[in-house]
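User: I'm new to structure prediction. If I give you an amino acid sequence, what do you actually give back? Let's try with this one:
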Amino acid sequence: MKQDKKRRTPWLSLISAGIITAMVLTGVANVGTAYADEGVDPITEKPGGQIDERLETFYSKLNEWYEIQDGNIGKANNAIQRVEEVLAKAAELGIDTSAIEALMPALYATVDQAEAYHARANQILTEHAGFNGGGKVKDRQQALETCKSARDALGSARDSLLEAREIVREIIEIARDLRESYAPAADVAS
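Assistant: Good question. You get back a string of structure tokens that encode the predicted 3D arrangement of the chain. For your 190 residues, that looks like this:
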């Protein structure tokens, strides 16, 4: 029995060596020749090119935000005008509007504050320090400061508009309550 094991061992090692050799040769035979690309040299990008692109995109988005917010400030001014009209009509009808009138100074102040921040953002974006007239970066550090300053001014204007919106909502609630409790005075015919 021991002799049988010894006889099988050389055959087994020969078969294993043959399989390994076949695998190696097949792997080598499948490898193709690699050729170098003789195309155009890679374009070397100027240092900070991606930063400049991002600043230009950010500057463009700030200008879009400014335009949208300009419309929102117009809406806030229209809301003030409508509230004033409602107050005048309510006064004609003899309705007590003191609760709404008490909120009006805060509404005027928040919209005025939003307009001031918005005007500051307009000034920053119009001066476009660090950018050329087409919105391309001339001076990276100045462009970065321009974007930060404009973002801060637009954000402050947005916050003021959100405060104004809450005041208008409160005025609407008070007006609804007044309308529900309003009972027109009976006209006395002479």
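You can read the tokens as a compact description of the fold. Here is one thing that stands out. The chain has four helices and no strands.
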